[in-house]
Write a structure and sequence with these properties.
By secondary structure, the protein is mainly alpha-helical. Helix content is 69%, strand content 0%. The C terminus is likely disordered.
Length: 378
């Protein structure tokens, strides 16, 4: 890696990948009969920071990339259109991955299985969030873009409990009240998908725009603070202030008629965002001499999309079920003890890193060939 790169950026994205692998394995492979003690609760809590971390760093990275393009003299309109194209590409990847899962997993054999194609997951939310952040902040003066992104994040967070209060009465599956999509008759599938994007729950949606996309917008708003030299104490102070604000709000009077702390609460959002910001500060304290020993973590961070796809497919996918039956003669899905699940986490981290490293090497080989081809055409 070039020494001028902000190493903590890759490290923080890499940690989000680690958290994701951990929580996916824990959810997919741990037997329901396995004891669930303090270690399980701790791992579940840590894994809960995978999605906020991905979203926060996506907005952060897009804003920093825009600043780099501005320094190179790229026109604001070109920067904005490029960001919107990347967001559209990622949304296509999200649905392409869903299609692959639909075909490989055999969902097409189930009545109503096509609903799986419309499922809203973290990639969908990141793509929509990147487009929203591009429209608000990319190509604008730095302070203006940050204020617009921050205001949009705050508005989404404060509106989430009210939006959830309205949408929970629609025919959407809710946490603890899952509805089989095959047995549910929606008056309009387009409206059904829109409701899932806004505030859906499993099985139609794992994530929704309210309030998850606010993490991405907050990352875009905070990004200008990262320009120039590292200032870890600034980030630690920001994180502590956000966490304290969330803690105080949670212990104050209820402001909403309906609120779910773990899904809609502005207080919990502030605490999670505070931890993300504090993690930025902590990673900035890591000396540059750690670049080599943490190269594996940086690789996971640079190839976070590849890591996401590998992690989902190798924990939940039909391919892993087939391999586990063929190699071990038994399924992995919800079949392991807690200790075996921990071993599975370590193995999955190694496999995810190997896939990410292999993909990065393949990309490195393709780039010189692409440049040589362009030169020959010219």
């Amino acid at each position: 890696m070039p020494s001028h790169r902000k190493l903590w950026l890759d490290w923080q994205r890499g940690l989000a990948v680690l958290f994701m692998v951990e929580v996916h394995v824990l959810d997919a492979w741990l037997s329901p009969a396995a004891p669930r003690g303090g270690a399980f609760a701790a791992l579940l809590m840590i894994g809960g920071f995978a999605a906020p971390g991905f979203l926060y760093m996506a907005g952060f990275s897009q804003a920093l990339a825009d600043a780099a393009q501005a320094r190179k003299g790229v026109a604001p309109a070109d920067r904005r259109s490029g960001a919107l194209r990347r967001a559209a590409w990622l949304l296509g990847v999200a649905y392409g991955f869903r299609l692959a899962e639909f075909l490989l997993g055999g969902a097409w054999r189930r009545p109503g299985g096509w609903h799986d194609l419309l499922k809203v997951d973290i990639l969908n939310v990141i793509a929509i969030g990147l487009a929203l952040a591009a429209a608000l902040a990319i190509g604008r003066p730095r302070r203006t873009g940050a204020l617009l992104a921050g205001a949009a994040a705050l508005a989404l967070v404060l509106a989430t409990p009210a939006v959830a209060d309205v949408l929970r009465h629609f025919d959407l599956p809710r946490a603890g009240h899952a509805v089989d999509p095959a047995a549910r008759v929606a008056p309009n599938h387009a409206v059904d998908v829109l409701l899932a994007y806004l505030y859906g729950s499993w099985p139609r949606a794992n994530f929704s725009l309210f309030n998850w996309v606010a993490f991405l917008l907050a990352g875009a708003a905070f990004a200008p603070l990262a320009l120039g030299e590292s200032r870890p104490l600034r980030w630690l102070g920001l994180g502590a202030a956000l966490f304290a604000l969330g803690w105080a709000a949670d212990h104050g009077p209820d402001l909403y008629a309906y609120q779910n702390f773990w899904r809609t609460s502005p207080a919990w959002f502030a605490m999670r965002l505070g931890i993300c910001a504090a993690l930025t500060g902590l990673l900035q304290l890591v000396p540059a001499s750690a670049e080599r020993p943490l190269a594996w973590l940086a690789t996971l961070g640079r190839q976070s999309l590849v890591g996401y796809i590998a992690s989902v497919e190798l924990t939940y996918g039909a391919l892993m079920e087939t391999l586990s039956h063929g190699i071990a003669g038994a399924p992995l899905r919800r079949a392991l003890s807690f200790r075996a699940t921990l071993t599975g986490m370590l193995a999955m981290v190694v496999v995810t890193w190997a896939i990410s490293a292999g993909w990065e090497r393949l990309e490195a080989r393709r780039k010189p060939r692409a440049r040589a081809s362009s030169a020959a055409v010219a």
